[in-house]
Amino acid sequence: MELNDIIFYVFGAITALSALYIMLTKNILYAAFALILTFIGVAGIYVFLGAEFIAVTQVLVYVGGILILLVFGIMLTNRLSGKKVVSPAYNKLMGLIVAAGLFAILFKGILQANFSAMNWIDKGASADSSIPKFGLTLMTDYVLVFEIIGVLLLLALIGAIRIAGNVRKEDKSAV
Amino acid sequence: MVFVVYAERKISAFIQDRYGPMEVGYYGILQTVADLLKLVQKEDIVPLAADKKLFKPGPIVIFTAVFAGFAVLPLTSDFGGSAADVGIFYLLAIVSLDVVGILMAGWGSNSKYALFGAMRSVAQIISYEIPLGLTVVCVVMVSQTLNLQEIAFQQGIWWNTIDPEAHNYLFGIKALGIDITEIGGILTWNIFRAPIFFFAFIIFFIASLAESNRGPFDIPEAESELVGGFHTEYSGLRWGLVMMGEYGMMLLVSFLAVILFLGGWNTPLPNIGSVTLAEWTSGTPGTIAGHIWGAFWMLTKAFLLVGLQMWIRWTYPRLRIDQLMNLSWKYLTPAAILLVLLSAMWRLLMV
């Protein structure tokens, strides 16, 4: 086994084990920190897929942004209510059935797929995956999607300000 | 690193006219060594009420996150860390992991001072990451690459060794028609290539002060109200790691500022006619002279910036939290967005 393989399996193990921990732990704060590990593990796997940019984006957006806010939220609510926030398991049977079904579908799909015959795999290996090209396609072929996401984020931002905004100030402006 | 801590002690003692760091050994040289020895010997105290699973790894996460950032920095023209294409982007991402460590430390300590310190620190770092990131975007837009080594190459006389087609014009404006690719020196630094970068550099510097929790943005560890911020409960080596993280962050943002705005490892002296000052004070990339001159300029500039950070810390009073948020969201962020637009326009002048 080469070093690359070992590192790949390490990242895989980090992802899988931390995901398992999220499921098993009752302490919601630990779960949030374990989720950070999961995302880092997934980012590592992205690197092995040759998608460095996505890996870094994953760390920047999910770990550096979203999860920090999540942990922040848990901390604040935890301290305010004065008791520990726990997340016990509900709907164990249903959850198990859904998870098993999903696993069966994915497992069968992966076994049946003939990856080496798919032309996009070869294309991905030979294509120039450099950042300039990535940026160019983003601003030409996928510009519509890009712009729509931008507008969507702006909407979310305005909505968040509206919800979180100071109520007293609104009353004043209404008068 | 040890040298920087020493410098901080010296400068702070000098400004406040204190005696300790001035008198241990010759001129106080041994003060840092004494501090370090003291830290290593100290007992590693874990408070009884602390959340041990989070308390213990906290400083390690902070330390690792900051030092992982150094991995992509080029020190000289031919020597440096990984030359990953995503360079600067990776750096911003990995440094944001620092926040996770601070949260772990603050929460794990189970003490109100530490928790408040962590919350202030994280709120501050997240807020200031935005103007910081935007000014980095300005530079990336003008240099058209995320690779830090390439950004450094563009700011000196050796650009043609990696890209024979490239040309630098005075202030980046091609219409002026003054080709300064061979002149180099301070004229090809980003701050001169696109003069609007002067403002970008100021914003970057202010934001980087806040990122590394330095004064005047050091309310997360305001001694007078919070004892020591998120690392109140730490002692011995773990506290040492936290402090190394802070100083590492200072160095990292200084290096970054140097590479992005102040020419990286390039010499500040231009070639003037037959007086080729730039070539005399920088070796060809790959040669030993290239390494030595590169490292010399890089480290000098970075340490100058670190010195500036210390100077500011020990002279300015700290900001209140609302003033701090005001500054970030109401002034720096809009200004940085405007600069992004201006740099895009500047880029059009350059081609």
Overview of the molecule:
The complex is a heterodimer of chains A (175) and B (351). Chain A folds into 3 domains: 89 residues, NADH-ubiquinone/plastoquinone oxidoreductase chain 6, subunit NuoJ (Four Helix Bundle (Hemerythrin (Met), subunit A), Up-down Bundle), CATH 1.20.120.1200; 39 residues; 46 residues. Chain A has 8 helices and no strands. Chain A is globular and about 60 Å long. The mean pLDDT of chain A is 79. Chain B has 2 domains: 41 residues, no CATH class; 300 residues, no CATH class. In chain B, 63% of the residues lie in helices and 1% in strands. Chain B is built from 17 helices and 2 strands. In chain B, helix 3 crosses helix 14. About 3% of the residues of chain B have low confidence. The chains are: A mainly alpha (175), B mainly alpha (351). The interface between A and B is medium-sized, with 22 and 25 residues.
Q: In angstroms, what is the radius of gyration of chain B? A: 21 Å
Compute the average pLDDT of chain A.
79
In terms of structural class, how would the helical and strand content of chain B be classed? Answer: mainly alpha
Number of domains of chain A: 3
Q: How many helical elements of chain A?
A: 8
Major pleated sheet of chain B:
2 strands, antiparallel
Q: How much strand of chain A?
A: under 5%
* CATH fold-level label of the largest domain in chain A: Four Helix Bundle (Hemerythrin (Met), subunit A)
Shape of chain A: globular
Strand content of chain B: under 5%
Mean pLDDT of chain B: 74
Helices and strands, with pairings:
The complex is a heterodimer of chains A (175) and B (351).
Chain A: H1 3-24, H2 28-48, H3 52-81, H4 92-112, H5 119-126, H6 131-139, H7 143-164, H8 167-174
Chain B: H1 2-16, H2 20-23, H3 31-41, H4 52-55, H5 57-69, H6 87-95, H7 98-108, H8 112-143, H9 148-154, H10 159-162, H11 190-193, H12 197-211, H13 223-226, H14 236-261, E1 271-272, E2 275-276, H15 277-280, H16 288-315, H17 321-350
Antiparallel strand pairs in B: 1-2
